[in-house]
Amino acid sequence: MAPVTSLSDSVQQQLASALAAVRPQAAADPLLRRSDRADYQANGILALAKKEKANPRELATEVVAHITTGELIADIEVSGPGFLNITVGDRAITGNLAARYADDTGRLGVPLAAHPGTTVIDYAQPNVAKEMHVGHLRSAVIGDAVRQILEFTGETVVRRHHIGDWGTQFGMLIQYLDEHPHELDHGAGEVSGEEAMSNLDRLYKAARRLFDSDEEFKTRARRRVVDLQAGDAHTLAMWQKFVDESKIYFFSVFEKLDMDIRDADIVGESGYNDMLAETCRLLEESGVAVRSEGALCVFFDDIKGPDGKPVPLIVQKSDGGYGYAATDLSAIRNRVFDLKADTLLYVVDARQSLHFKMVFETARRAGWLNDEVTALQLAFGTVLGKDGKPFKTRAGETVRLVDLLDEAIDRASAVVREKAQDLSEAEIAERGAQVGIGAVKYADLSTSANRDYKFDLDQMVSLNGDTSVYLQYAYARIRSILRKAGEVRPAAHPELALHPAERALGLHLDAFGETVAEAAAEYAPHKLTAYLYQVASLYTSFYDKCPVLKAESPEQVENRLFLCDITARTLHRGMALLGIRTPERL
């Protein structure tokens, strides 16, 4: 099916034609925005008038004279200093929604991007042999939403989970496991993710105690780091045990988060190990990096420490070891030259912004990033408790992610059970998980990524206000109405006049594609959440003011069922792009 042109684009085209007739040599962008005084308001006339040294109100009047009102633009008038207030016809609203409704691909007539590219998105980056905590939440949730939104627009998206699976701590762990080979022996039975991480946590603590108390073990452990970096087969096999054990745990947490994480997309620090020496050689030979006190460094004029001295990016340490910079720069080379990406997106904590600023600038100096290939960090803020401080347990420890998710599911299950009328216990448990995880995701995504946000479960699972539960119940209500309609099917009737609540809902539904495109261009899932909340709010107003099954005529019943159904489809598709389920019954 061909994409459906949005009403705003159609209006924009008519305005552009009228402007061209009035000022053939002039270019203007009559920006359309929703207005309390009309369906759309065009304010680009003011900028054009200033450029042309004309009276804006007179210019606006000339433009109006070249527009023929009809099915699309039912009315247009000049207001204020030169704004154009535009009212769209009822027939155009219903007709456009009917075209979207006829799209059986599930895209609601939304077009693909005109020039899609290839984006590598780096998100969901846990550490091997360490539990995931609340700090891992935002990278996973924001990254997965951005990934799905980009894919919906037609972008080729390559997922990368840059897990922490390399470094000096593995020498300690490998040596300890080598000397205590039965520590990770699970016997014949399968092990759960929680059990896997419990074993690793116990192993890590035991290894750390021995490392701190036994100098001979410490020496052996440090030798193991050298063996690991040199590719010793036995040491690598031991290291692989830790990685495999951790993945059992990672996948269990991501499954609880209702996220699709594929093993092939997990390329950790170790995945670039063979490139590190060459990365350093290329940087040094090109003069981008220089030796300073034995270390290979990149210096920047605008980055200095408290003492006023330059703070370098250390690519290789003076002892020959490699740090995060070498790995990140090697990853850029791989993503640009092997994966052929034109955009590199890093969903990483804002506290790492300086590191990535230096890494990206280094890659630009080396010619790996340029006007055709860009890299940017989608930096996110901190998860705060109700007190506005970083979210901690009562004992002051970092909150385990699985504990946080379990509590959200428990709270949501209680809400579902209280409202449930015909759900079994199994259905309540299933819906509780969908509502609880949806609540956590929505609370995160409804806040601009670069801002901190308060984790307040009471608010998150509330049926009132800007929450995923409110949207999920709106969807379930619509599905209930459609079931009650029985054999009466939704059908569009463009000939019918629309109630103001129907018009407001219809115009907003038509803007779904524009909203997704904007959210994709700006990597801003919060714009999609705001749009969907408005959909649910406008539907509530429509439901209160416009009887559906008891409408005045059979045609009006069908038309309002049609509005209900396309609202449900928009909520379902939009929530899916955020990684949130929409249960049919609640």
UniProtKB/TrEMBL annotation:
One of its GO terms (biological process) is arginyl-tRNA aminoacylation. Transmembrane segments: none annotated. This is Arginine--tRNA ligase. Its EC number is 6.1.1.19. Pfam families: Arg_tRNA_synt_N, DALR_1, tRNA-synt_1d. One of its GO terms (cellular component) is cytoplasm. Residues 9-88 form the Arginyl tRNA synthetase N-terminal domain. The lineage of its organism: Bacteria, Bacillati, Actinomycetota, Actinomycetes, Kitasatosporales. It comes from the Bacteria. One of its GO terms (molecular function) is arginine-tRNA ligase activity. SMART domains: Arg_tRNA_synt_N (SM01016), DALR_1 (SM00836). It comes from Streptomyces fumanus. Keywords: Aminoacyl-tRNA synthetase, ATP-binding, Cytoplasm, Ligase, Nucleotide-binding, Protein biosynthesis. The keyword Cytoplasm applies.
